[in-house]
Amino acid sequence: MVKHIVLWTLTEEAKKNIDAVADDLQKRFKALLGVVDGLTGIEVGRNYNGGTFDLILYCEFTTKEAQDKYQNHPAHVAIKQIVHSHVCGRDCVDYEI
């Protein structure tokens, strides 16, 4: 199993509507379940603990290959464009268990 964690810092404009942004992205990413082969879990959460990052994306994949296919899947690419309109910083961690 592969876990993919992305941390986002929102723009000042997006922070004004953080709940709506988080809810919208949660809905869009959850819709990828059953669409992207090998994606077994996905969620978006709001960081309530302070710090640099505002939102977190957590994904689980069956394999590294499934994660690679997710990155270029048209449904994911469409969501990435929306994310980029709200985000001014990003970090990512991937690991296999």
Question: Helical content, roughly?
Answer: 40-55%
Task: Please give the alpha-carbon distance between the first and last residues.
Answer: 5 Å
The count of strands amounts to 4
Beta-strand content bin: 35-45%
CATH topology: Alpha-Beta Plaits
Average pLDDT over all residues? 97
Strand order of the largest sheet: 2-3-1-4
Computed CA radius of gyration, to the nearest angstrom: 13 Å
Number of helices: 4
Largest sheet: 4 strands, antiparallel
**Count of structural domains:** 1
Provide the CATH architecture.
2-Layer Sandwich
Which structural class is indicated by helix and strand composition? alpha+beta
- Ranges where pLDDT stays below 50 over 5 or more residues in a row are none
Describe the structure.
This is Dabb family protein. It holds the Pfam family Dabb. This protein has 97 residues and is α+β, with helices and mostly antiparallel strands. The protein has a single domain, classed as Alpha-Beta Plaits (2-Layer Sandwich). It has 4 helices and 4 strands. The chain has helices at 12-15, 18-30, 64-72, 74-86; strands at residues 2-10, 39-46, 55-61, 87-96. A 4-stranded antiparallel sheet has the order 2-3-1-4. A hairpin with an 8-residue loop joins strand 2 and strand 3 (55-61). Helix 2 (18-30) packs antiparallel against helix 4 (74-86). The longest helix is centred in the N-terminal third of the chain and has 13 residues, at 18-30. It is globular, with a radius of gyration of 13 Å. The mean pLDDT is 97.
